[in-house]
Design a protein that fits this description.
By secondary structure, the protein is an alpha+beta fold. The protein folds into two domains: 3-66 and 112-191, Hypothetical protein (Archaeosine Trna-guanine Transglycosylase, Chain: A, domain 4); 69-109, no CATH class. The chain is 15% helix and 26% strand. The protein is built from three helices and eleven strands; from the N terminus they run E-H-E-E-E-E-E-E-E-H-E-E-H-E. The protein has helices at 10-18, 129-134, 159-171, and strands at residues 3-7, 23-27, 46-47, 53-54, 63-67, 70-72, 82-84, 113-123, 138-139, 145-146, 182-191. The protein has a five-stranded mixed β-sheet, with no helix packed on it. Strands 3-4 form a two-stranded antiparallel ribbon. A two-stranded antiparallel sheet has the order 6-7. Strand 9 (138-139) and strand 10 form a beta hairpin.
Length: 193
């Protein structure tokens, strides 16, 4: 079984842990340039120029270890010796320490593992309401939607609008929502290491 890392924000790690996130969308690189009309329902592989195929970086069956913002005291190489930003503010015993980037989180520090169960491709704006909820968008007490417990990305009626705010908070500089980039849509389930 192939095993690869994947970065998640603290809010999305919390959504994985809560069982409200079972999908993630990642930008297709490089972005395809379609000649004509794309065929609906194409999954796993597609092409833009003859002879040029795109394959998902995380095919079905891939085991993913979640990279998240973290800190470790270095005493032992186990997740139990680490602190994670998704768990809240920096604990008092870490006074003066700085969170480490998830980019540099080693596998031994991972505490969340996923298995890719489905892959498809679509423009990001094609997300459905059900898929926005599977991306971890939360329903608020007043019946609206937000992408985290602090109410960021709030919208009163449509989880897709909250997802749009989440997308731009993560990808807005290079691939903003308005550019409607093609994305890999990964479905996953949590697994034990």
């Amino acid at each position: 079984m192939t095993e690869k890392p994947m970065l998640f924000s603290p809010a999305m790690v919390r959504a994985i842990q809560a069982g409200t996130k079972s999908q993630t969308r990642r930008v297709v690189k490089p972005q395809p340039v379609w000649r004509g009309t794309p065929t609906p329902g194409i999954t796993a592989h597609f092409f833009d120029d003859p002879g040029r195929w795109f394959s998902p970086p995380y095919p079905v069956g891939t085991r993913v270890w979640v990279r998240e913002t973290w800190w470790c005291n270095g005493e032992s190489e186990t997740p139990e010796s680490c602190e994670y930003r998704a768990d809240g503010e920096m604990p008092p015993h870490m006074a003066g320490a700085k969170w480490r980037s998830p980019m540099f989180m080693p596998r031994w520090a991972a505490r969340e593992f996923l298995e890719i169960t489905g892959v498809s491709v679509e423009p990001v704006q094609n997300i459905s309401e059900a898929d926005a909820l599977a991306e971890g968008i939360l329903q608020t007490r007043d019946g609206g939607y937000a992408y985290d417990a602090e109410g960021r990305g709030y919208h009163g009626a449509d989880p897709r609008i909250s997802y749009m705010h989440l997308w731009d908070s993560i990808n807005g500089k290079k691939h903003p929502w308005e550019s409607n980039p093609w994305v890999w849509c990964y479905e996953f389930r949590r697994v034990t290491p």
